[in-house]
Amino acid sequence: MTNPARIRGRAAALQIENLDTDQIMPKQFLRGIDKSGLNEGLFYDLRFDTEGRPRPDFVLNQAAYAGISVLVGGSNFGCGSSREHAVWGLLQFGIRAVVAPSFAEIFFSNAMNNRLLLVTLPPDEIAKLILDTKNPAGNVVDIDVASQTLRSQSVHTGFDLAGRHRRMFLEGLDNIGLSLKYRDQINVFAAGHWQTQPWLKDVAARVRARLFST
Q1: Is the pLDDT of residue 178 over 90?
Q2: Closest to 143 in 3D by CA, of 163, 124, 123, 115
Q3: Of 13, 45, 100, 161, which sits with the fewest C-beta atoms within 10 Å of its C-beta?
Q4: pTM score, two decimals?
């Protein structure tokens, strides 16, 4: 299985400031009832022309960047609407981490909750990392969540990560899995809550049963 806490692979730079989720995952790819096929919609209007032909100048259409694991972006990456499909599409495309100077708040939450690692670095480190992506011989990025470090040919730096996000990556958990780690404490709290306020327990189910009992 893929280790969510260690990401090592080639990177590509997408130097677009304020890249919004509409550009990451256009609206026409939001109509499905599941997550399948979103890799085809990722950056669609940037990857393809109006006739559906790949744009040869777009970085992800170039052979040197096929199968990348890391995307290096501009500031305020993921702004715009809150569509989680943008995160799912990036993951389906094979991107396991995005490195940028800053991220939009909702996109950040969606990404980390789905174990798409977001790493925030200062602009000067981003600039060096972008240069590394343009060198085929040295284009390898190694991100270690345990030590909270990122290495490339020219960059060796640390990054900040909230404790709960670090634990999610180290233990391979999503939000639900992390919550279930506290199952015993939740059950104790719930039992005390229902004991002191029993009239609130299952109130919706009891009302529904009364309404449809006749």
Answers
A1: no
A2: 115
A3: 45
A4: 0.86
